[in-house]
Write a structure and sequence with these properties.
The chain has 251 residues and is an alpha/beta fold. 43% of the residues lie in helices and 16% in strands. Helix 1 runs parallel beside helix 2 and helix 7 crosses helix 8. The chain binds 1,3-dihydroxyacetonephosphate.
């Protein structure tokens, strides 16, 4: 069946030395907790330090974005080949902060996703509705359109390397969490969209995380839901005890 994936999204937090200290702190706390995959996605310049600190542990280090071109005149960007060469396996794509502040669209999210998959990486694809869309009752339509656009031309075979993170934008960093029922329902709607594209087998096998103010208090209830296969955690991933408690909730 589907395996829990608990991932921290560092966002723009921790310098390399702080990343090293954090991984050294949390490593023994999550040791042996093998009922879920544990990933921290980190800013590019801290990846190397975090990976060295995580060596030999059950913690994997990923990136927070990747460009869609193999190389070229894209000042400030990083390619999948560059990440692969330093051993990065996972990458977040399409986070709502990228969409909101950096002009990311479903089209560029799709291009980045295909480039990462072509390079043999695993993608954590983020999508979710904004508050106005939830209030208007169109969440299902929004997440299914995003699922279809973001995964356009991604093969069923490649879906083995795609994790979807359902992140309602109104719940990110706000302290507002989707109720377990809302999270389950919307993750289920994303699964329905996957079923329409790829059929039931792929839809059932795809890991769908919830993200948006997940913390040590609400994780167990959210993770208990049928369609919620893990968490993508921002704020609470910066505190070792809080993140470990979420890992415990997935055991
Ligand atoms: P918070 O957990 O801080 O709400 O952030 C969620 C998120 O954006 C994870 O990608």
């Amino acid at each position: 069946m589907r395996r829990y994936v608990i991932a921290g999204n560092r966002k723009m937090n921790f310098t390399p030395s702080q990343a090293t200290a954090f991984i050294n702190e949390i490593k023994p706390m999550v040791a042996g907790k093998d009922n879920c995959d544990i990933i921290f996605c980190a800013p590019y310049v801290t990846i190397d330090a975090a990976m060295k600190a995580a060596e030999g542990s059950n913690i994997k280090i990923g990136a927070e974005n990747v460009h869609f071109a193999e190389k070229g005149a894209y000042t400030g960007e990083v390619s999948a080949q560059m990440l692969k060469e330093i051993g990065v396996e996972y990458v977040i794509i399409g986070h709502s902060e990228r969409r909101q502040y950096f002009g990311e669209t479903d089209e560029t999210v799709n291009l980045r996703t295909k480039a990462a998959l072509a390079a043999g990486m695993k993608v954590i694809l983020c999508l979710g509705e904004v508050k106005e869309q939830r209030l208007a009752g169109i969440t299902k339509e929004i997440v299914s359109i995003q699922t279809k656009l973001d995964l356009a031309d991604v093969s069923a075979e490649d879906m083995k390397n795609v994790i979807i993170a359902y992140e309602p934008v109104w719940a990110i960093g706000t302290g507002l969490t989707a109720t377990p029922e809302q999270a389950d329902e919307t993750c289920g709607q994303i699964r329905e969209a996957l079923c329409e594209i790829y059929g039931a087998e792929v839809a059932e096998a795809t890991i769908i995380q919830y993200g948006g103010s997940m913390n040590e208090k609400n994780a167990a209830e959210l993770l208990a839901k049928e369609n919620v296969d893990g968490g993508l955690i921002g704020g609470a991933s910066l505190v070792a005890e809080k993140f470990t408690a979420i890992v415990d909730a997935a055991q």
